[in-house]
Design a protein that fits this description.
Number of domains: 1
Mean pLDDT: 95
Number of strands: 20
Low-confidence stretches: none
CATH architecture: 5 Propeller
Structural class: mainly beta
CATH topology: Tachylectin-2, Chain A
Distance between the termini: 4 Å
Radius of gyration: 18 Å
Largest sheet: 4 strands, antiparallel
Strand order of the largest sheet: 1-20-19-18
Length: 300
């Protein structure tokens, strides 16, 4: 079994003022039949990120059927935690509503940035997302003092379970950033308990910036795809019996760069989802999503 790349799906053409370049952090939402809406993070001329989408049919996934003309979510107000941009983490159905968890960007003076997690809520399918608050739903604290990134949330047995990135140290340069993946729980998806559990620790010398977890449950096994940087971003894979204690499983269930083209230098920001008995992977390519995103399918 391996990932078979199906091709390059989308790169912005520069026509949207809120999303002139980049299509990073792709996240799939089922619409109907084989049609999916793929949300992504894009950037404007000031490098501030916003969230947009395209729609595809999985029978021909590299053909874009529709594209958002307005942003799903724009940067927040000046001086707030997301004033420099918002990057999508995941979308979770909650009753008849949809919860969009996102990472807010706030640029700082002494370190490159601070990130905290926000929540936008849609009243139902086809309804717009609106911020639940101007303030973060998961804020910096003694457990996560520096920066928090890309949440992935599952609902299970009446509880919300979150895997998210947390920086445990800043250094003199960005490559000193010690960013790993932690775990949190909630009764309502809004108020979160953070027991300071490290889900994925550093796996090799020089690894840093672990981020963008995507978790699925197969039978009794939790499976996580995430990305991390050594020299360049690569996608990694781990398994767990309970979602708390994880074992990194080589690279056999991950995916690597191509020999040339849009995803030949780096590959990152995985989103794995199932449809009609098949498993698909969305991922970004070169330049942290500057070249857009593509899709692969799991097959023999």
């Amino acid at each position: 079994m391996t990932w078979k790349k199906l091709g390059h799906v989308y790169k912005p053409d520069g026509s949207r003022p809120w999303g002139q370049a980049y299509a990073a952090n792709p996240v799939a939402e089922h619409i109907s039949g084989d049609r999916f809406r793929i949300y992504f993070s894009s950037r404007n001329i000031e490098n501030r990120s916003a969230i947009g989408w395209v729609e595809i049919d999985l029978k021909n996934p590299t053909k874009v059927l529709a594209e958002s003309t307005t942003a799903v979510l724009l940067p927040g107000e000046d001086a707030f935690f997301d004033d420099s941009g918002c990057s999508i983490g995941c979308i979770v159905p909650v009753g008849g509503q949809r919860y969009l968890y996102y990472m807010g960007w706030h640029l700082t003076q002494r370190v490159p940035w601070q990130n905290q997690l926000g929540l936008a809520i849609s009243a139902g399918p086809g309804q717009p997302f609106k911020r639940s608050s101007r303030f973060p739903v998961v804020a910096l604290n003694e457990i996560d003092p520096y920066t928090i990134s890309y949440p992935w949330v599952l609902q299970e047995n009446g509880r919300f379970r979150m895997w998210y990135g947390s920086n445990i140290a800043w250094g003199r340069v960005k490559e000193d950033m010690r960013h790993l993946i932690k775990y949190a729980e909630s009764d309502d998806g809004i108020h979160w308990e953070r027991p300071d559990i490290v889900a994925i620790d550093f796996g090799f010398s020089g690894e840093y910036a672990m981020s963008k977890p995507c978790v699925l449950k197969d039978g009794n096994t939790y499976k996580m795809w995430f990305c991390s940087r050594g020299e360049r971003y690569r996608i990694r894979y781990a398994e767990s019996p309970d979602g708390l204690v994880w074992t990194r499983v080589g690279e056999q269930d991950a995916i690597d760069v191509s020999a040339d083209g849009w995803d030949s230098d780096m590959i990152e920001y995985p989103c794995v989802f199932d449809h009609n008995g098949q498993r698909f992977l969305l991922y970004s390519g070169n330049g942290y999503g500057l070249e857009g995103f593509g899709i692969a399918v799991w097959e023999a």
